[in-house]
Amino acid sequence: MTSPPMNDSRLIVGLDLPSVEAARAMVDRLGDAATTYKVGLALLARPGGVAFAHELREAGKQVFQDWKLHDIGAQVEGAARAVAEGGCDLLTVHAEPQVMQAAVRGAGGSPTRILAVTVLTSLSDEDLRAIGYGATAAELVARRVRQALDSGVDGVVSSPLEAAAARAAADAAGRPDFLIVTPGVRPAGAAMGDQQRVATPAQALSAGASHLVVARPVTAEADPRAAAQAIVAEMAGVPVRQTP
Asked: What pTM was estimated for this model as a whole?
């Protein structure tokens, strides 16, 4: 009988916790059940937050610094260069052409992969209309995925509901290695929280996602290690995408 996998590198655990100490304790509790972590703005902005991200890498973890950079080109280029020089596996920027192109220049020549955030998973079509967009979330994501491919970034962040269209666009562009990272992933029966466009882990991977970001369904559980392993077990039913 085959034993269930201990972990899956496609699972990114979001350390959306109130302090560096809480995040460090969560990593200790998860142990070898997780290999990749997202460190978001709330932690990065705290004293020691960036050092904590570097600490995770030194411990052999993959680290996703979720800065969501959005500024004029010179600032984004400089910030991306600084993050890459410090050591980072995945770095997010907003999916606007000038921003993406600047980040690619800044991180050029480093192992840091740039991810472009298409439309936040907390936003519904109604929210986008209120902001002033004339497109639906699906339409806006499709446009931004095309721009991301043209800009030379390594992948995008989009909801599971747009993962299939993003994967189709990447394949059509000859980019089977294009990363599609999906937040808004909830195991069956889990609360939606502030997410609007969600799917289960198996649904997101089957749709074309390369990686899943899961925070509260792991970190808010009484036994986060068991929660992570349950998600890994569900993910095991969807084969890892083969890329050249």
From this structure: 0.90
